[in-house]
Design goal:
The protein is of the alpha+beta class and 116 residues long. 25% of the residues lie in helices and 35% in strands.
Length: 116
């Protein structure tokens, strides 16, 4: 079975496709770093859309999502964007937790696993 890597960097790839499964690495905001959870979440789900499209999939095929928030009190703010993005009837299994992220300007990180 072949392995395809998307967005290969020196430490990690943005995604790895193995068979019919796509593993998207945790994504953090590029242009909205330091801004609100709303802005960062909106940017991140857009990044996930683009990565999944490049891998030959889309958000309706997300199997599992892990969402990291630096402050769990922003759960509702993140969900306000998530709920408008995710397709009803195609909602993935999901875990959301509070965690210290790699740099203080990042308030949200989202990783997903999807089917092709």
């Amino acid at each position: 079975m072949s392995i395809q890597r998307i967005g290969v960097g020196p430490r990690m790839s943005k995604a790895v496709v193995h068979g019919n499964t796509i593993y998207v690495a945790g994504q953090v905001a590029d242009t909205t770093a330091g801004q609100s959870v709303t802005d960062q979440t909106r940017e991140i789900v857009g990044m996930i859309d683009a990565i999944l499209a490049e891998a030959g999939s889309d958000k309706t095929k997300i199997l599992f999502a892990t969402i990291y928030l630096t402050d769990i009190s922003t759960f509702g703010e993140m969900n306000a964007i998530w709920d408008t993005w995710v397709v009803q009837g195609h909602t993935p299994a999901r875990a959301t937790l509070e965690a210290k992220l790699v740099a203080p300007q990042y308030k949200v990180e989202i990783a997903v696993t999807a089917a092709k």
